[in-house]
């Protein structure tokens, strides 16, 4: 896919300090003439985008049930209040819906929301009734999803379980129900977990598998309604896998999140239980019962780890594998490739060109294709360290799909109506 759009309106980055607000709060003070920059959407990049926006905008927590986006004299005249009955957008899809609804609102009510934090590509998170023709997706980093397996698999951090895509599909369609069917010693049943609806892991693996396990119809031994014992709904970040199921669990997880929490016991707490534990921690450490699998490429030539373990160094010894989580493996932009490793995907900020906040938001998280156009700090490589620290992989300044990375930025731009 090749496309180019020229932007002619630009708000200088130096002027962004005039936009009052806070990076992680829910209430903002509206400026007199410039609508505030408010980001909503997926939780995956919430902390990172809060750092990027800093004092230039308001980064609303995914699914927030309190707080408000303040009224503004030049837009967002009604403001937005969040409650348990009307929570803030909690996913890529909900953020897209908020942008599209605002675009269709009267001019005086536009400008409340400017950015959707998205982990799903164009077309993947919208409903058929939503027109994305005015949306632009700015990819700025890579994340991935890969099976997270319990100790019944026989795997360790130093020797991960090798899985083919055929095997992963068989686990989720219940052709494979016991660990020994994967060539390991244990005869225990596999307890399958599926990510929360709207998450990046659920989105990319539905595309990879070619079906949604929660909707699949199979024989009675494999319940797919998330109520039976064989397909369990992943819980919140405080409890991905229940304590009693850790040894037998088969789930999906981000290698960046895994490595980050493994490598920072000081940040996440050396005495806390892990984030896949049932204890209600905000953060924690990983159980040694859970490891990330390596996945075979589509050519069937090799198994590829998503994290690298450095033996003998203990905690702080895992990192995202720099040869697996690369742009050449991005799932949606390399469909049909015979060498791609399944599971890698872009992370996006989505903007709406029809909204009054567009020029300012573009200066924060996008880039301008016009002659002599400028590039935001996020898309110029200045935030590479912040992206890496968050567990994601920054994009290089070259090598994106044709026409997506003009002016040499470290972001890619895609039209809302077209998949990468």
Tell me what you see in this structure.
- The protein is α/β, with parallel strands linked by helices and 420 residues long.
- It has helices spanning 46-53, 92-103, 165-172, 200-209, 255-263, 265-268, 358-365, 384-389; strands at residues 38-41, 58-59, 68-69, 80-81, 115-118, 135-144, 146-149, 162-163, 191-194, 231-233, 249-253, 291-292, 294-296, 303-304, 307-309, 318-320, 344-352, 393-394, 412-415.
- The protein has 2 domains: 13-142 and 348-415, no CATH class; 146-342, D-Maltodextrin-Binding Protein, domain 2 (3-Layer(aba) Sandwich).
- The chain is 15% helix and 17% strand.
- Strands 1, 2, 5, 6, 17, 18 and 19 form a 7-stranded mixed β-sheet that branches. It has a 5-stranded mixed β-sheet with strand order 10-9-11-7-12.
- Helix 1 links the parallel strand 1 and strand 2 (58-59).
- The radius of gyration is 21 Å and the shape is globular.
**Taking Cα atoms only, what radius of gyration do you get, to the nearest Å?**
21 Å
The overall strand count is 19
Uncertain runs: 1-33, 224-229, 268-285
Instruction: Give the N-terminus to C-terminus distance in angstroms.
Output: 7 Å
The amount of beta strand, in percent, is 15-25%
Helix coverage percent: 10-25%
Topology:
Elements: E1 38-41, H1 46-53, E2 58-59, E3 68-69, E4 80-81, H2 92-103, E5 115-118, E6 135-144, E7 146-149, E8 162-163, H3 165-172, E9 191-194, H4 200-209, E10 231-233, E11 249-253, H5 255-263, H6 265-268, E12 291-292, E13 294-296, E14 303-304, E15 307-309, E16 318-320, E17 344-352, H7 358-365, H8 384-389, E18 393-394, E19 412-415
Parallel strand pairs: 1-2, 1-5, 8-13, 9-10, 9-11
Antiparallel strand pairs: 3-4, 5-17, 6-17, 6-18, 6-19, 7-11, 7-12, 13-14, 15-16
């Amino acid at each position: 896919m090749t496309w180019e759009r020229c932007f002619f309106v630009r708000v200088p980055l130096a002027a962004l300090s005039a936009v009052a607000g806070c990076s992680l709060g829910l209430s903002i003070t509206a400026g007199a003439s410039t609508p505030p920059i408010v980001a909503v959407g997926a939780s995956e990049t919430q902390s990172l985008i809060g750092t990027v926006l800093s004092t230039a905008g308001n980064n609303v927590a995914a699914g927030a049930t309190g707080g408000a986006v303040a009224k503004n004299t030049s837009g967002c005249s009604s403001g937005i209040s969040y409650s348990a009955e009307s929570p803030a957008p909690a996913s890529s899809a909900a953020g897209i819906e908020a942008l599209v609804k605002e675009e269709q609102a009267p001019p005086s009510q536009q400008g409340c929301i400017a950015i959707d934090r998205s982990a799903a590509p164009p077309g993947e998170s919208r409903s058929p009734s939503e027109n994305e023709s005015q949306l632009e997706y700015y990819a700025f980093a890579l994340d991935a999803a890969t099976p997270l397996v319990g100790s019944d698999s026989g795997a360790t951090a130093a020797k991960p379980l090798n899985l083919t895509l055929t095997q992963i599909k068989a686990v989720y369609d219940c052709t494979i129900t016991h660990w020994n069917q994967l060539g390991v010693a244990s005869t225990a049943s596999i307890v399958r977990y599926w990510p929360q609806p709207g998450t990046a892991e659920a989105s990319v693996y539905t595309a990879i598998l070619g079906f949604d396990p929660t909707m699949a119809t199979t024989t009675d031994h494999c319940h797919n309604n998330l109520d039976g014992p064989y397909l369990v709904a992943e819980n919140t970040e405080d409890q991905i896998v229940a304590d009693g199921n850790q040894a037998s669990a088969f789930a999906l997880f981000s290698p960046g999140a895994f490595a980050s929490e493994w490598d920072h016991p000081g940040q996440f707490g050396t005495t806390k239980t892990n984030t896949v534990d049932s204890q209600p921690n905000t953060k924690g450490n990983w159980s040694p019962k859970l490891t990330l699998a390596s996945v075979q490429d589509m050519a069937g030539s090799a198994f590829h780890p998503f994290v690298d373990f450095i033996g003998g160094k203990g905690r702080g010894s895992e990192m995202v594998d720099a040869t697996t989580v690369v742009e050449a493996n991005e799932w949606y932009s390399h469909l049909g490739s015979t060498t791609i490793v399944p599971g890698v995907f872009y992370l996006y900020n989505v903007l709406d060109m029809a909204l009054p906040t567009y020029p300012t938001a573009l200066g924060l998280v996008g880039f301008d294709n016009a002659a002599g156009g400028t590039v935001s700090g996020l898309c110029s490589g200045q935030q590479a360290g912040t992206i890496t620290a968050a567990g994601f992989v920054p994009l290089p300044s070259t090598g994106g799909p044709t026409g997506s990375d003009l002016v040499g930025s470290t972001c890619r731009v895609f039209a809302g109506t077209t998949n990468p």
